[in-house]
Write a structure and sequence with these properties.
single chain; 6 strands; 8 helices; six-stranded mixed β-sheet; 20% strand; alpha/beta
Length: 224
């Protein structure tokens, strides 16, 4: 198996490394503008499939391409990456003290036979009432400018999210349990306990992984 991640995101690379599999990165360049009236789930799935197909055209025989797209949704509106510091501030003000949703679409494409499997995840994300000073210091760091919704849940200094009760990895951009159950359909089972590794890496007690994996803590690890 040759595994290819269709993303330059360091967060996605970090999460895919939890599987212990070697993989190659080939970034996909696609138009990320939403279509008129497009629902968030349809949007992230469309982009994930577009990325998978774009990278498959460059991939070697035998490869499996993993593509993902993540977006922030507030009051039904898709919030992409901010164009500049002013737009980042506008987004962070809008999200402050409210709960929004983070959607991720997954597309896994087997290059040889063209099989394309998709999944998606949505997480409710409650933001804390951070101060103007905290927000501006975070914006000045430059961190928000390459992130949908202008924030990173894992940022150690800003820590914008409070009391999350869903998939932390999804908010980072790669819901690993959803990825695990999709990869299983291609006969690919990780040799490691991915949910445990995810929780240890992110320092987060996940309340949803058993439900996502159908109550089977092993998709986790291959059984002899």
């Amino acid at each position: 198996m040759r595994l290819i991640l269709a993303s330059n995101s360091p967060r996605r690379r970090q999460l895919l490394e939890l599987y212990g599999w070697p993989f190659q990165v080939i970034a996909a360049e696609v138009d990320e503008r939403p279509l008129a009236g497009e629902a968030p789930r349809d949007y992230v799935l469309r982009l994930a499939k577009s990325k998978a197909n774009a990278v498959a055209a460059l991939a070697p025989a035998g490869a499996v391409v993993i593509a993902a797209d993540t977006t922030v949704v507030e009051s039904g509106e898709i919030l992409g990456k901010p164009l500049d510091a002013a737009e980042a501030e506008s987004m962070l003000r809008r999200l402050r003290g409210h709960t929004h949703q983070v959607y991720t679409g997954l597309a896994i494409l087997h290059v040889d036979d063209g099989r394309l499997l998709c999944d998606w995840c949505v997480t409710e994300v409650p933001m804390r009432a951070y101060s103007d000073e905290e927000m501006r210091a975070y914006i000045a760091s430059g961190d928000p400018l390459d992130k949908a919704g202008a924030y990173a849940i894992q940022h150690p200094g800003f820590q914008p999210v409070q009391a999350l009760s869903g998939c932390f990895a999804n908010v980072m951009g790669l819901p690993v349990c959803h990825l695990t159950r999709t990869l299983r359909k291609l006969g690919l089972t990780p040799g490691k306990d991915v949910p445990q590794a995810c929780q240890e890496t992110l320092h987060y007690h996940c309340p949803v992984f058993m439900e996502i994996l159908g109550g089977d803590r092993a998709g986790l690890a291959a059984r002899s």
